[in-house]
Amino acid sequence: MSTKVRTADTRERILTAACEAIAEIGFEKIRMRMVAERAGVSTALLHYHFDTREKLFTEAMTHSFANTATDVERDAGTAPAAVILARIVRNLLPTDPELHQDWRLWQELWVRALRDEATRTYAVDLYAQLHTWVADAVRRGIASGEFEPTDVDGLCTLVLSLSDGYGIRLMLRDPAVTLDSALASIWRHVSTALGLTDGIPEE
């Protein structure tokens, strides 16, 4: 195994461990030693890759987002745009254990962003990436004729806002909101804007 591959593997293990630890106990309680132990590396090696907790946190958030985006876009060149868009909507909510962990990371990010300007800027940038992610799927469908033309930016802002609102209530286990009702509500707005008549597509 080359040095480059070993380095990439080590970073992957560290970032995966960081995501798990932050989601489990919260960023404020996290210590670099905890992440190193969970990743199976020395503290010195962890500091070699990530010299501060803050850098580790932002890299973990980026890692989490990138993994989700890669999974969603795996067949974007061949799958109908509505299927890709529905997949994105599902991935914007805590629909499985992995996304539940991602949502815990997002909640940690929001709390830090209220107190730290650098984190606030980073959070805004991540939202811009999410916006682009949704917008690209919508524009792809409009270009192919699957979707009716619409205010793409307005729709993306609405989808992200609804996902945040419903996602928080799902994380709180609010009995008034279920995953099915949240998905149906978001997709109803999407369908109206894009001229779709069927329900949310299945995989």
From TrEMBL:
The keyword Repressor applies. PANTHER family: HTH-TYPE TRANSCRIPTIONAL REGULATOR BETI, HTH-TYPE TRANSCRIPTIONAL REGULATOR RUTR. Pfam families: TetR_C_6 (PF13977), TetR_N (PF00440). It comes from Streptomyces filipinensis. It comes from the Bacteria. This is HTH tetR-type domain-containing protein. Residues 31-50 bind DNA. Keywords: DNA-binding, Repressor, Transcription, Transcription regulation. Residues 8-68 form the HTH tetR-type domain. One of its GO terms (molecular function) is transcription cis-regulatory region binding. The keyword Thylakoid does not apply. Signal peptide: none annotated.
